[in-house]
Write a structure and sequence with these properties.
The complex is a heterodimer of chains A (498) and B (168). With 498 residues, chain A is mainly α. Chain A is built from 21 helices and 2 strands. Chain A has a two-stranded antiparallel ribbon with strand order 1-2. Chain A is globular. Chain B has 168 residues and is mostly helical.
Chain lengths: 498, 168
């Protein structure tokens, strides 16, 4: 083992960790006592600089390797995912400038960086011990971020709920992992998979899989582990909710896909309507179906836009699960494309919500009335993001869903047994258009009693416009990202491509 | 002899665990905390039987010692009264019972399967002392070790932020 090699492979993470110390240090020393606006600006620019530095490093020094036979995996696919994760964090940090809910500026940005560090480690490990520690790093930071607005009762409630449910989910996950370890005596995903094939199918394996799915299902907010999501999205400070909805989702789905396709590759089962077989596919199919139904139907009745986004996130977890269920390289690529573009889209939507909430003091539907006249830029961004979430053709959300449906149908090609899930997803996708249009109707048709123009920071405008452009770009030319992901997957796991 | 001790410790752990969360005689949080100490100690006994001496020592020092003292402090500072009995609704009760029942069935089935085809129980050949543990930490698992240190930083920052009085 060579510590120099470890440091080289972990360079982006090290940059991020140094940035974190810099942010904390700068805020505690020569910025203490200064105006909060200045402190926020410095902390945000340091955070963005750190994220960009890490992205540049990955881009210009593409180094790959496996250390400790899989405890640390650095390959093209993890590198692309890490870059997107860093971009999402940088955008979140810039959107944070729009809010002023805490005097602890350095700690807030520091915890965003710490959560991102957790995401990066989650992505680049194939060892259940490391996966668990990385997941806890990300989760603990997110609990803190959710309860950061100390003057606000809803934020405290959000933090506590997230923490309690999250702690329970972690316990389930740890129990599942320990059962997997007990069954196989290995902690590396590939070795676990090799051991499972040799032993006869054990009911204990079913217990282990269902416990692992409970833990990870909580992270991706799939029904029935979604109870925390609406309260956390609504109560947490908006940038925290944005990070929970974008970066955390991407890292967790990447982890789930790896866990299932590598670690449990010999316990797949079948979710086809006429040929159910035990394994993780039928379990995930059930979670996906429930998430689609509950998420989309409950979102119809919401009057708070953040809660609406929470239920829409639950529904989108259902769509994204289709990519995992496909259990193929095409499914993997479709899943990553979907969750990445979803991250950009939902960040844009949360950015608009943050501005509206600061100016009107509420995130109710009525607060969005007359948005198109009060701030045409915000209304335009909201228009693009919500239509993309609904899956309207020239936008990224449409192609994401299209690829997912294609992947899952091709994976079950000869029998079409999984068609029931696809039909359900398409039908509920039509339903979802209704509640997204409710918001847009407020923004474009309704008139506000007092239509004063919103003042929006230039940095916020820039980020929101860039996010909306990304959504349009990946909608018009999805191949830009898809071909990159496919190449990366081929380079990362030649055995996985089929 | 060894299996006798195993059954003793396992039974103690389970009984104390049940008494910790559902004690029919007392609803005092301090009693629950005390039963938690007993659970921890019986688990440490199981660890000793597995030759994981270091883990057993840490279990008693950290969990039964330090963590429990913290728990008791918090309970005293919060001045908790006896917890009130709450009647859970029928729907909630039903869902809970059904899922717990299904889970118990799965577990029972796996126990039955293990009895029919006993796995070759590997005798505990691992030396769970400090030296092999340290070797593993610095050769195979330095990465999770490092991540843990960052995790501790999160805990520290979090506690400072949450517990600091807001000066307006």
């Amino acid at each position: 083992m060579n510590y120099g090699e470890l440091l080289k492979l972990l360079a982006p993470e090290s940059i991020l960790a140094l940035t974190l110390l810099l942010v904390l240090g700068a805020d505690a020393t020569f910025l203490s006592g200064r105006a909060p606006g200045l402190r926020r600006a410095v902390a945000a620019s340091l955070t963005v600089a750190g994220c960009m530095g890490a992205i540049y490093w990955i881009f210009f020094f593409p180094i790959h390797g496996h250390l400790f036979s899989g405890v640390l995996v650095v390959d093209p696919l993890t590198q692309v995912t890490k870059q997107v994760l860093l971009l999402l964090t940088a955008a979140t940090a810039l959107l944070t400038l729009e809010t002023a809910f805490t005097p602890h500026v350095g700690e807030y940005f520091g915890l965003q960086l710490l959560a991102t560090l957790g995401f990066l480690f989650m992505v680049s490990s194939e060892d259940i011990l490391t996966i668990f520690v990385a997941l806890e790093l990300a989760s603990l930071s997110l609990y803190m971020l959710a309860s950061f607005a100390k003057g606000n009762l809803a934020s405290a409630e959000a933090g506590l709920k997230y923490f309690l449910y999250g702690g329970l989910a972690s316990a389930f996950l740890l129990f599942g992992f320990s059962l997997l370890y007990g069954l196989t005596g290995e902690t590396l995903l590939a070795k676990i998979a090799a051991k499972i094939t040799t032993t006869p199918r054990d009911p204990l394996l079913v217990v282990a899989i269902s416990m692992v799915l409970t833990g990870l299902g909580f992270k991706i907010a799939a029904v029935p582990f979604q109870l925390w999501a609406p309260d956390v999205y609504e109560g947490a400070p908006t940038p925290s909710a944005a990070l929970i909805a974008s970066g955390s989702k991407l890292a967790s789905f990447f982890l789930l896909e790896k866990m299932m396709t590598i670690g449990l590759s010999s316990a797949v089962g079948s979710g086809a309507f006429h040929a159910l077989a035990a394994g993780w596919v039928p379990m995930l199919a059930m979670l996906a179906g429930l998430s689609l139904i509950v998420g989309n139907l409950t979102a119809l009745a919401q009057t708070s836009v953040k809660r609406l986004l929470a239920y829409s996130a639950i529904a989108h977890a259902g769509y994204a699960l289709l990519g995992v269920i496909a259990n193929s390289s095409q499914g993997f690529v479709a899943l990553l494309f979907y969750v990445m573009t979803y991250g950009f889209t939902v960040l844009g939507a949360f950015g608009v919500v943050a501005v509206v909430e600061r100016q009107t003091g509420s995130d109710r539907l009525e607060a969005f009335a007359g948005l198109s006249r009060r701030s045409p830029v915000l209304a335009g961004v909201l228009f693009v993001c919500l239509l993309s979430l609904a899956g309207i053709p020239p936008l990224a959300g449409f192609f994401g869903k299209f690829y997912l449906f294609a992947a899952i149908l091709r994976a079950g090609a000869p029998s079409l047994g999984i068609l029931w899930l696809v039909i359900l997803a398409i039908a509920l996708s039509a339903v979802s258009l209704f509640y997204y249009l409710q918001v847009l109707k407020q923004a474009f048709v309704r008139e506000a009693p007092l239509e004063l123009p919103f003042s929006v920071k230039p940095s916020t405008q820039l980020v929101l416009i860039l996010l909306a452009l990304c959504v349009i770009l990946f909608g018009c030319a999805p191949d830009l990202l898809v071909s990159k992901l496919l190449l990366a997957l081929k380079a990362a796991a030649p055995g996985l491509v089929f | 002899m060894e299996s006798l001790f195993f059954y003793l410790f396992a039974a103690l752990a389970v009984v104390c665990g049940i008494l910790m969360v559902a004690n029919p005689f007392s609803r005092n949080p301090v009693t629950s905390a005390m039963f938690m100490v007993l659970t921890m100690i019986s688990l440490a006994g199981v660890f000793v039987l597995l030759h994981a001496y270091f883990l057993a020592a840490v279990q008693i020092l950290v969990y039964a010692g330090a963590v429990m003292v913290l728990f008791l402090f918090v309970i005293m500072l919060l001045n908790l009264k006896e917890e009130e009995k709450r009647k859970p609704g029928w729907v909630r009760m039903g869902f809970g019972l059904v899922s717990a029942g299904l889970f118990a069935a799965l577990l029972l089935r796996s126990v039955a399967a293990a009895r029919n085809a006993p796995l070759e129980t590997a005798a505990a050949t691992v030396d769970g002392g400090v030296k092999p543990l340290g070797l593993l930490l610095f050769t195979e698992y330095p990465l999770p070790f490092e991540i843990m240190s960052i995790l501790l930083l999160v805990g520290m920052v979090g506690v400072v932020v949450l517990s600091k009085k807001e000066l307006k």
